[in-house]
Amino acid sequence: MNKFFKLIILMITCPLAQAGTLYVDNVSNCMGLTTCYSSIQEALNNAVTDDEIRIFPGTYPEAVDLSLMGSALGVATDGNLRFITVDENNNVAARTVQVSPLNGSAFTHSNNTFDGNLEFDGLVVLSTDDDGIDFDAINGNITMRNMTASGNNKDGIDLEINTSGYSIGIYDSITDNNGDRGLNLDGPDATEVIIRNTQANNNIDEGISVEADSIADALDVTILDSLTQNNGDTSHDSAGIVVVSVGSLLVSNLYASDNHGPGLAIIDVTETTILDSIFERNAVTEEFSGIFLESAGVFLVTRSIFSDNGYAGVNVYETFIPGNELTALNINCSSFSGNQLGVLLNDSAEITASYNINHSNFINHTIAGIHAALENDAIAASNNWWGDATGPTHSDNIAGMGDRVSDSIDDAIGGALGTVNYLPFVMAPISIKQYPTDILFAGDFDGNICSQL
C-alpha cells in the first residue's frame, strides 16, 4: 500500500480534532456543557489550536504549563489559545477565577518556545514563590484584558516575545503589590507594546518595565490612561515606569505619583511624546525626578504637570550612550511647581540640538525654574509664566521676582554653560486642570495655542 492511501486511511480512522470551546469547572459540571474538565491543565491537554477555554468561577490550585497543549490527544503541539473567565451562567465575567499554584507560576511554558497567539481575559493569578505569569519566549501575539496579578512573590506578569513583528497588549488590568515588578515586558525588533487603562502600584521594583536588548530592536511602546504609584521602598529607588532601548514611546493621560524613584525613566529611546499626564511627589527622599531622561533623540511634552518631585520635574541627564544624543526638546503648555528644579538640562545633546520650552508655568521652585547646564546651547524659553508678573529672577531682569533662570549669564547654582532666552514672559498663568481618569486640558492661553496642541 502506497503512502498516499495509508494517509487517507489514517485520516478516516483518526479524524483530526476540530477547534472549539472547552469548559472548566472544579466545583460543578459546567452547566452540563461539553466538554467539561475539572482543571485548566486537563482542558489544555485536550486543546487544539484556536480553541477557547472558558473557566467557571472558583480557585484553581494549578501551575498551568502551555507546553502540554494537546498532549492528551496524542498530537501535542503549540497553537492559538484563548482563556476567558465566566460566571456561573457561562456569561463572560472578569475576575471570577483565581489561579494559585502551590509553587511556580500560575501560567508558564516548559518548552524553549511557544508558537501561537495567546489571549487571557479576566483571570486573577497569584504565586507565592514566582511570577504570576511567566512567558519567556512566545512566537505570537499576547493579549491580556481585565487581569489581576497582585501579591506575587516576583513579577506580576513577565512576558517576552521571541520573534519580531508581534505585539503585547495589556488592557484594563491591575498589577499591584508584587515582590518585583508589576509588568515586565520585552521583545525584539518591530514588537509593538500597548498598555492601556492599567495600574501598577506598590510593587517593590518598577511598576512597569519595558526593555529591549538594543535600541536597534525598534520597539514601539504606547502607554495610555494608566496609573503608577508608590513603587519601590526605602532600599529600592524604583521608577513608576522604566523604558529602555526602544524606538518610539508615546505616553498619554498617565498619572505617576509617589514612586521612590522617578515617575518615568527613559533611557536610550529614539523618540518620546508625553501628553496630558501628571508626575507628582516622585522621589521625594532621593534626587530623582518626575521624568528622568538619558539618551533620547527627540523629547516632546505637551499639557502635562510636574509638581513636588524630589529633584527636578524633568531631568535631561548627561548622555553616556553615544549615538543617540538628544536632538530636539520641546515642552509646551505644561506646569512645573514645587520641585527643586523645574527643568534641568545637562550636557547631553548633539551640536545641532534645539531646545524649546514655551507657554508653561514655573512656580515655587527652591533652586530654579530652568537650569542650563549644557555647553554653548541656547534654550528658547519665551512666553512662560515665572510665578510673578515681573518675570524670572535673573541678572538681566533686575526687577524679576519670579522663579530663577540659571544660565551662563546668571549662574546662581554653578555649572550653567548654556543661555536661556526667557523674553517675553507672560503676565498671567496658564489655567491647567487634571483628573487621573480624564484628559488634561489647558484653558485659553496666547491665542488658544494650548488647546490646539
Percent helix among the residues?
under 10%
Tell me the major beta sheet.
Answer: 26 strands, parallel
DSSP strand content: 35-45%
Shape: elongated
Number of DSSP helices? 3
How many domains? The number is 2
Task: Supply the helix-strand structural class.
Answer: mainly beta
Alpha carbon gap, first and last residue: 74 Å
Poorly predicted runs of 5 or more residues: 1-17, 433-448
Mean of pLDDT:
88
Q: How large is the radius of gyration?
A: 26 Å
Q: How many β strands by DSSP?
A: 40
Q: In brief, what are we looking at here?
A:
The chain contains 3 helices and 40 strands.
Could you list some keywords that capture this structure?
mainly beta, 26-stranded parallel β-sheet, six-stranded parallel β-sheet, 2 domains, 453 residues, disordered N terminus, 3 helices
Report what the structure shows.
The structure is a single chain. It is elongated, with a radius of gyration of 26 Å. The termini are far apart. It folds into two domains: 17-183; 199-453. Residues 1-17 and 433-448 have low confidence and may be disordered. The chain has 453 residues and is mainly beta. Helices cover 5% and strands 40% of the residues. β39 and β40 form a beta hairpin.
